[in-house]
Amino acid sequence: MNQVSSFAQLGVSAPVCRALASKGITEPFPIQRLVMRDALSGRDVLARSRTGSGKTLAFGIPMIERLEAAARRPIGLVLVPTRELAVQVTDELKGIARKSRLRIAPVYGGVSLQKQASYASTSQLIVATPGRLQDLIDRRMISIAGIRILVLDEADRMLDMGFQPQVDRIVAGITGEHQTMFFSATLDGSVGKLARSYTTGPVRHEIEDKSRVIETADHRFVPVRHETKIETLVDELRRDRDLALVFVRTKRGADKLCKRLRSEGIPAVAMHGNLSQSQRQRALAQFDSGRVDVLIATDVAARGLDLDGITHVFNYDPPGDHKDYVHRVGRTARAGRSGTGITFVADDQIYDLSVIARALRLDAQFEAEGLALTRPGHRFKPASASVGRSRRPPATSRHTRFKETKSDSGRSRKAAPRRSSRAGGGVHMATGTVKWFNDEKGFGFIEPEDGSKDLFVHHTSIVAEGFKSLAEGAKVEFDAQQGQKGPEAKNVTAI
pTM score > 0.70 for this model? Predict the structure, then answer.
């Protein structure tokens, strides 16, 4: 069978094809070829595809083709995990829909409720984060009962961030017959079960993630010393490149590194959870336009970002596991283009990073610069190192990597390192920011300062007499302990 080479062959109308061509988009990406005909026909779709694969147009074009501009209420809904992605999806769809007279409204936190609701309630297509949309629904400021096309974009991320209760309520609030398209980096386990519960007789399409990233990107593992790591990064950034994305573990580390790079004459911006919405949008605009060519981000802040032109991804701080590595480096090996992933390897990180390299079959790349792969079960001893040896002691329990444990269901979970809450115990409590907290149900999630996985927090873990809630964005101290269903924040106090 000949491969489809144009959108017209997929059934896309001439006006939309012209709008795509005006933006330089003439040939569909693989996920668009797979999904488009089914989506245009109104079938429910399950699609496994990562960020940067072209999935926005895979669901966006069918929505633009099928939604009626004459409606004066929401009839199309795209749920996304972050406000940055809400803005990006909205902008991309507006560029294609400008001749259709469709009104497309982003809905996310951090801006005026009244103004947002006024525009969204009369728009045909809404691109929303679950929390803010549910808030508008609860306040009776918007109705989604008439939605005809529902899209869940990066659904696995929404679940990771604790949005399933809101998503469940939103889906249940759509009362009429409708089409559902479910896009996720994985369709296995609980995500797949949820996807099937939201859809009826869906057709399933998959794009392989890991092999695409590994095959299309170049991979380098660079030995470094902790005390000269910044200098090594500066040297790398001064080489020939386009846009660079640098991953760090903490928000504080992002700010510190950004300041240092600027002092070296390298234009850089930091992206993390402490920035206001306007600051985040300004930073992204500077990076996307090329006025600033280095973006420093934590894993949490980078979720949902869909940026083109990144030629280099730096793992300045190591990824947590091989999946995180693929997600990070996949930011540069996008839409059929190549790129380079550069991972810094200090003495005390050789074992963990060699495990990642082995899992991804990057043994040769790991050994190319003099690093030795450690055998399974044998940890590397810094004293025997000859390359970039660091004299720092091994990481304390405060920085111990989360270990794999098994939950009651048999699924692998991340077990947090225990942190003592006793004063004078020799171990500091962890710090973080309240990502969100549901006052009605008495639970929420905390984003740890060290960049590790978000932690569940129950109101009974708040250390304050009669205090049963936490304000979103509040700074807190806590102990990370293993709960019945995974890592939790205990002994939580506001700071």
Answer: no
